[in-house]
Amino acid sequence: MNQEVEWAEPSKDESRRCELRHPDLRCLHPLKTPPRCHATSPYSPLRCRNCRSVISPFSIVDFSSINKIWICSFCLQRNHFPPHYQSISEQNLPAELFPQYTTIEYETSAVHEKAQAGSSNVFLFVVDTCVIEEELGFLKSALLQVLGMVPENCLIGLITFGTYVHVHELGFGQLPKVHVFKGTKEVTKDQLLEQMGFFTKRPRPTTGVIAGVRDGLSQESVARFLLPASDCEFVLNSILEELQKDPWPVPSDQRAARCTGTALSLAAHLLGVCVPGSGARIMAFLGGPSTEGPGAIVSKNLSEPIRSHKDLDKDSVPHYHKAVKFYEALSKQLVHQGHVLDVFACALDQVGVAELKVAIEKTGGLVVLAESFGHSVFKDSLRRVFQSGDNDLGLSSNGIFEINCSKDIKIQGIIGPCASLDKKGPLCSETVIGQGNTTAWKLCGLDKTTSLCIIFDVIKKENPDIVAQSANNQFFFQFLTYYQHGSGQMRLRATTLSRRWVAGPGIKEDLISGFDQEAAAVVMARQVSFKMETEAEFDPIRWLDKSLIHICSQFGEYQKDSPSSFSLSLDYQYFHSSCSIYAVHNSSSDFFMAHVNPLGSMGQVKNLQLSGRHAGDFQFMNGAGLLLCHQSMFGSEDWGRTGTREVVGPCLVGGFDPLPALTLPHLPLVFNNSLMTAYFRMILNSENIANSVVMIQPSLISYSFQSGPEPALLDVASIAADRILLLDSYFTIVVFHGSTIAQWRKAGYHELPEHQAFAHLLQAPRDDADAIIRERFPVPRLVICDQHGSQARFLLAKLNPSATYNSDGVAPGGDIIFTDDVSFEVFLDHLQRLAVQ
């Protein structure tokens, strides 16, 4: 954590009738090793006896007193050091008081945490058998491969489902034994205990909750269904090798009877009974839509189509609301148990991810979408889950995230993969956004890239100069993350930040110089996505037009009514290039956002400094990024088949003149396919800053004989016959060969000894693409294409259409884009004209 990265928080200035605030947005990346890193402290932290915050470098320590004391920076409570701290001095400080260690991790030693320290991770596979033989073969092969990668001490269980749900006993290797449940009926926890014979050899407790070995179950009964990988590998291999497609016949005019909801409910009950509070994951492998039992998204009749976004808008969805209600109840159960739901959806049809979204997000689960179980996206992503080493996911579990802050700040909520624990207190704001009305959240599953978007509220002061007149104008944040490490240890990571309020001249310059446009882009993308899901009448295009014009007029440099004089600070060039600067209107209060990774490492920090205005005015509180959902698996030619873009034309916004409709092809607002929409929104809401920025604005790298790899404009003009382009749009990696390069490659010049330079040129983008693929989850799709080839659409769909079929003259690279969308330059011309008015 770089403690020197300061930001200024201005106070109110009534003479200007506005207040420019300088809040904080940061992304703390988990488990990375920063330049200055302190090893995990093998003891429990010191906590304030009043507010329960953890001691930090910002705490005031009185070394002169006989019994040394420290003063909490949040509530100013005086706390005594325990006896084993009595030897500390200004020259002999513990790690948590070193100025550079504003983030520090502890191995907790509480009694209830010691009991869990040796607990093992649990993986319960839930396998869909209502797929064709070829798909089932691909899935079985992938599962058999990863079984050898599971750590030996991890527990494994298996449930298969189709028309019925089969819970497999793994502890009875001599003869396969299966418990069968009807898919049309929801099974309760008590029914599961009775039908699966958990109390055949010992009496059932008459009181209390049955939850694990410590609360009523024998180890022998648990080991029937959950066994260490080293003990059940042979049995699992045998079951998977003999696993057959669901045997029940399917009429030609009907869908397969698939009881996904019942299978997931049984899996949740089984884990809740056997291993509550452990790091357990339900890994569901789905090959089609649920058609029977609770959670069904469509009937079995093929004459009834699966719901689309238009159906959702018209409320013509007979199964949707009932299914969402079921999965909301399932998510509450999983959150209470501390368990995670991961979904691997591999089908050309929808599988119900839109309904499952609430359970996946609230438990922090992984989600992977692919066309087939045989696709490399699925197979490589599944291997990454169990991979160890430098590129592992760093999966952790059973976390709790808490926030403490100074009294001038309140918490509105969090947008991200978490669930509220309803811990209300004086720090909770009356305005709620996302998961609010609490200061603590449950993180059932988290990994290296997990990040949370936190929204704070600045308390208004009766005296506008009270902050400026204060002798100590600092305020503080503290983020506490309790979690179960992959090794089974319970740890606490504490990050403490300090910022200051400032007032007077130069506020705007301080604000601009400290602005982190990448972090702001991600925050705004998340908020717009959230508003689209929760506000029925929300119009993102109108909001974006108004916001963009306002922010450019506020922070641009120009002469009034002179568009040619307009310029924007370098600190806002990312906004300028992506055409996606936003402003937020909040009539009730001033607020700002922070974006943190709950396991953020020391030193990996991004600061966001934002501004506000009085109630009823606009506040510049968020950043850039037109991304709401990201189309990357399909090119522009596939939209008519797989999804549609909702394009809102020019409109009059709040008294502003309309902007021309700028629709970047790689940033569609809504898919007609709700599976795709839900999938991309879930990824956006959980990824870190760097990856989210790539979703918002893909990166383009150029390779040629004239120079080494260099960034290229995301524009059709970047295409050249003697150039190779590498496009990274997060979900898809495209290696694009210019026409001349493609001809030389087809002629085999790269295989000749005298053309080694050409061979190296061809290999360079492939090596860079492989490096990106190794580090990303879900594993992106790799597309290798040539100019004017059919798959060139994967690149053309992402480029700015500066040259179209309507353009005069010939494009520099010989390529044009067949679209009626306006180019970025036309959009900017209109923007500059409106901003200077």
From TrEMBL:
Membrane topology: Peripheral membrane protein
Residue ranges constituting the Gelsolin-like domain according to the UniProt record: 708-795
Entries under InterPro entries matching the protein: ADF-H/Gelsolin-like_dom_sf, Beta-sandwich_Sec23_24, Gelsolin-like_dom, Gelsolin-like_dom_sf, Sec23, Sec23/24_helical_dom, Sec23/24_helical_dom_sf, Sec23/24_trunk_dom
Compartment(s): Cytoplasmic vesicle, COPII-coated vesicle membrane; Endoplasmic reticulum membrane
GO biological process, one term: intracellular protein transport
Alphabetically ordered keywords of this record: Cytoplasm, Cytoplasmic vesicle, Endoplasmic reticulum, ER-Golgi transport, Membrane, Metal-binding, Protein transport, Transport, Zinc
Residue ranges of every copy of the Zinc finger Sec23/Sec24-type domain listed in the record: 45-85
Entry's family note: Belongs to the SEC23/SEC24 family. SEC23 subfamily.
The protein, known as: Protein transport protein SEC23
Top-level taxonomy: Eukaryota, Viridiplantae, Streptophyta, Embryophyta, Tracheophyta
